[in-house]
Write a structure and sequence with these properties.
By secondary structure, this protein is of the alpha/beta class. The chain has nine helices and 13 strands. The strands form two sheets. Strands 1, 2, 3, 4, 5, 12 and 13 form a seven-stranded mixed β-sheet that branches. It has a six-stranded parallel β-sheet with strand order 8-7-6-9-10-11. The longest helix has 21 residues.
């Protein structure tokens, strides 16, 4: 049982999520992960970043929270969310969860919605009336990207497989492209923003589908994207952007998403639930690449 330091709270975790990033951290793929999180083995033996739970103990100096507060948040530096308890400093990315959200829904929103918000609002400066294409619109990031793009007034095109067309429509997409029948890069249509929420396309493939001042966003740091970022920062034109969204989150982002969820403007998308003891199975399912929305870990507690 971890004991909170003076400036920390201890969270009794009820839900977490398994993401493609969790799988990447576990496998050290791509290799650069080893340079940050451990060369031969993970520095942090407990995995997991996003969570929701209840504060059951506070340190002597804590003023922002009290015992019994229901919270959701992230631990991108030290991990540890795939566990029964987690201690975090009170100033970290931690906030009261939406009052109408279950712990599972709160953890799910904390995953994909925070990433989508960082890319669309902060990096692309999304505006009303823009045409936005979301590649991977049924995934954990894409499903929230569709909802947030609609919230900001964009005309949204979602790219997904046949089996997920109805899901993406229900999220508010104005247009659907079934990638099993149509390649959006071969169309004459152009977009202000193309968000590759699964990292399976590339700037070079999408370039002709961008307007002259268009922006390509990717959740995967491919070399071509990084080179284009450097080029456009000096010479302008179409831009490509990658950012480590998990390291740029804040209490303010969680507060904003809480408001949207409570107002019914954002909903959680949960594909499967696994008990903590079956986290390995959750990893295997996420690695199939076929999940819709979030894969949630549920944590039971002995009384």
């Amino acid at each position: 049982m971890p004991a909170p330091k003076d400036n920390e709270v201890r969270i009794k975790i009820y839900a977490g999520v398994v993401t493609p990033s969790d799988c990447a951290f576990r496998k050290a793929d791509p290799f650069m992960i080893r340079l940050i999180y451990g060369l031969t083995k993970p520095k942090n033996v407990k995995q997991g970043v996003e969570f929701a739970g209840e504060i059951d103990e506070i340190g002597h100096d804590v003023t922002l929270f009290k015992k019994g507060d229901q919270v959701y948040g992230m631990s991108p530096n030290s991990f540890g969310a795939h566990a029964e308890y987690l201690c975090l400093p009170e100033h970290k990315v931690l906030f009261l969860k939406p009052t109408n959200a279950s712990y599972e829904e709160a953890a799910a929103v904390c995953d994909g919605a925070t990433t989508a918000l960082t890319f669309l609002r902060d990096k692309a400066n999304i505006r009303s009336g823009q045409k936005v294409l979301i590649n991977g619109a049924s995934g954990s990031v894409g499903a929230y990207a569709v909802q947030l793009a609609k919230y900001y007034g964009a005309e949204v095109t979602g790219v997904c497989s046949s089996v997920n067309v109805e899901l993406v429509k229900s999220l508010g997409a104005d247009h659907i492209i079934d990638y099993t029948h149509q390649d959006f890069t071969k169309s004459d249509l152009t977009y202000d923003v193309i968000f590759d929420a699964i990292g399976k396309s590339s700037f070079s493939r999408c370039k002709s589908s961008l307007k002259q001042t268009g922006i390509y966003l990717s959740t995967v740091p491919k070399l071509g994207t990084l080179l284009r970022m450097a080029w456009s920062s000096k010479f302008g034109g179409r831009k490509a952007i990658f950012t480590a969204a998990g390291l740029q989150q804040s209490k303010e982002n969680l507060a904003f998403l809480k408001e949207l969820f409570e107002a019914g403007k954002l909903k959680a998308i949960i594909d499967r639930r696994y008990p903590l003891e079956q986290t390995a199975e959750a990893h295997r399912y996420v690695e199939t690449g076929r999940k819709k929305g979030n894969v949630v870990i549920t944590v039971g507690h002995r009384s």
